[in-house]
């Protein structure tokens, strides 16, 4: 009789464990990203499982929340941002207590300033060319896919003269319902027609308030951005999600040129928009060469 009761107890425990883990279809990480030396919060760190469209970004205070399906629990979460060495954490090594108060320390890395002599004798605008004749119906607008922090939309920029210094970045804003915006401009090298390495040595955070139906102009002189070849420019969504989801649209055109490029989440997989209209964002850069 005692043996039967013991077996029943073991079965009951096993059933309890099975029910408990079956109910947990996600692991939810709550935490903060800090500088390993100063212990200060690091804002806008890209966080996610590479190429699995599970990701986010830390907020201004370095805080983040990431919801991970149990099916991906054998993967690692990657933390990366300009100026710091990337860090990977195996999800299955994070215990339940740490999941609610995870602290991630990143180590800063010295940036190497490129020394290239460019005599700024000439100026030129690259990117969207308004002089190309297009159908009236070809002018439109495009938005981010959601309010997930860390997602990006961008376009291929053809460089006409090399090397060149990027002076200003311009993008038309359409139908913006946000009182304030926080975006990040990223400049990538190109591999297999998709973004590869971020060419920037500093974060370019764009903050704007009450902007609508006008062109946003971002001066770039202080960043000393020198490009040698075609590149992909993206805008990354870092605006905190309001209680009411609103809209923002950027100017775009239908074009026979390069497709619009996007990823849906931080650390996500890059995609090209292969719509029948072949959309292209109206990004432009003033350059010196």
Structural class: mainly beta
Shape: globular
Name of the CATH first level of the largest domain: Mainly Beta
**Which spans of ≥5 residues are poorly predicted at pLDDT below 50?**
2-8, 10-23
Which architecture name of the largest domain does CATH use?
Answer: Sandwich
Based on DSSP secondary structure assignment, what is the total number of beta strands?
A: 22
Strand content: 35-45%
Largest sheet: 8 strands, antiparallel
Helical amount: under 10%
Explained architecture:
- The chain is mainly beta and 289 residues long.
- The protein folds into two domains: 25-106, Carboxypeptidase-like, regulatory domain (Immunoglobulin-like); 123-288, Jelly Rolls (Sandwich), CATH 2.60.120.
- It has helices spanning 2-23, 96-99, and strands spanning 26-35, 46-49, 54-57, 63-69, 76-80, 87-90, 102-106, 123-127, 139-142, 152-157, 164-174, 180-191, 194-198, 204-209, 214-219, 226-227, 231-237, 249-254, 261-263, 271-272, 279-281, 284-288.
- Strands 8, 9, 11, 15, 16, 18, 21 and 22 form an eight-stranded antiparallel β-sheet that branches. Strands 10, 12, 13, 14, 17, 19 and 20 form a seven-stranded antiparallel β-sheet that branches. A four-stranded antiparallel β-sheet has the order 3-2-5-6, with no helix packed on it.
- β12 and β13 (194-198) form a beta hairpin.
- The protein is globular, with a radius of gyration of 23 Å.
- It starts with a helix and ends with a strand.
- The model is unreliable at 2-8 and 10-23 (pLDDT under 50).
């Amino acid at each position: 009789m005692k043996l039967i009761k013991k077996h029943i107890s073991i079965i009951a425990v096993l059933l309890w464990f099975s029910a408990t883990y079956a109910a947990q279809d996600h692991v939810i990480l709550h935490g903060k990203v800090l500088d390993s030396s100063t212990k200060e919060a690091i804002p806008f760190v890209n966080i996610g499982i590479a190429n699995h469209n599970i990701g986010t970004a830390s907020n201004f205070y370095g805080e983040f929340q990431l919801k991970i399906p149990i099916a991906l629990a054998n993967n690692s979460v990657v933390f990366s941002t300009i100026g710091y060495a990337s860090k990977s954490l195996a999800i299955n090594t994070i215990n339940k207590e740490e999941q609610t108060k995870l602290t991630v320390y990143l180590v800063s890395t010295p940036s190497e300033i490129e020394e290239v002599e460019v005599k700024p004798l000439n100026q030129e605008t690259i990117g969207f060319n308004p002089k190309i004749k297009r159908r009236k119906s070809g002018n439109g607008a495009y938005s981010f896919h959601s309010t997930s922090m860390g997602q990006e939309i961008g376009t291929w920029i053809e460089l006409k003269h090399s090397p060149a210094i990027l002076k200003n970045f311009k993008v038309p804003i359409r139908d913006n319902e946000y009182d304030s915006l926080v975006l990040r401009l990223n400049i990538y090298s190109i591999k297999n027609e998709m973004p590869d390495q971020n060419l920037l040595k500093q974060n370019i955070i764009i903050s704007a308030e009450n902007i609508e139906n006008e062109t946003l102009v971002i001066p770039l002189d202080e960043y000393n951005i020198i490009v040698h070849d075609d590149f992909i420019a993206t805008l990354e969504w870092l605006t905190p999600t309001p209680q009411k989801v609103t809209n923002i649209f950027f100017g775009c055109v239908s074009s026979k040129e390069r497709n619009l490029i996007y990823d849906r989440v931080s650390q996500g997989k890059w995609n090209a928009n292969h719509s029948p209209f072949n959309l292209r964002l109206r990004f432009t850069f003033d350059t010196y060469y």
